[in-house]
Amino acid sequence: MKHIRSALCLTLLTLLTACASAENKDPIEDVNRNIFAFNAVVDKTIIEPIARGYRYVMPKQGRVAVRNFFRNLGEPVNLANAALQGDGEQALTSFWRFTLNTTFGLAGFHDFAGENTPLKYRSEDFGQTLAVWMGNDNSAYFVIPILGPSTTRDTVGRVVDLFLNPWYYALETEESIALGVTDALTRREQVLDLTEEIEETSFDPYATYRSIYLQNRAKQIKNRTPSNQEFVDQ
Questions:
Q1: pTM of the predicted model as reported, rounded to 2 decimal places
Q2: What residue ranges in 136-191 does DSSP mark as E strands?
């Protein structure tokens, strides 16, 4: 049943991508703004307070270790997408990062590879793979309920990445959900300062988030370092 639901979602999102307008990056802005407003309420009442609590009780060194752990769990997906993009060097980098960090890095809690070798972390996902195959100018901005900024192409990519992730098959559904929620909360903690600044200084936070997301995704697709890497990675 889990695979059937995922396949249906993939089919629907593929259709959305095919219908996206290349001329207008935000053709469903009214819908997106309504979802954005809903997300803001959920974030303020539930997600942000938990993220702040996590920051309060967990020392910075511990938060870095947790971030490293989740990054390491994502290396098989990075490897698969780098290979699909024809980037053999990055695929090997992800392979050796996963191998070294899982062993010498104590299950990934320590970024042994990043600190002791030239093998630096780089996130690769199927949204980027689609952009490499199809070009970066053919996907509309799309705000996902709860999850936040995306595009129709990147939303399809999220679904495909589930199938590329070996932990999806190795873990029970409840375990996968628990890991996903924990990962999302740690990512939310990483951008607390950024989102607070946007909310305090931006005349139109929706437009600001949209601009940051689209610009940073374009840099990621070109394998450049985004200005707000943690925001992109969330």
A1: 0.85
A2: 141-144, 148-151
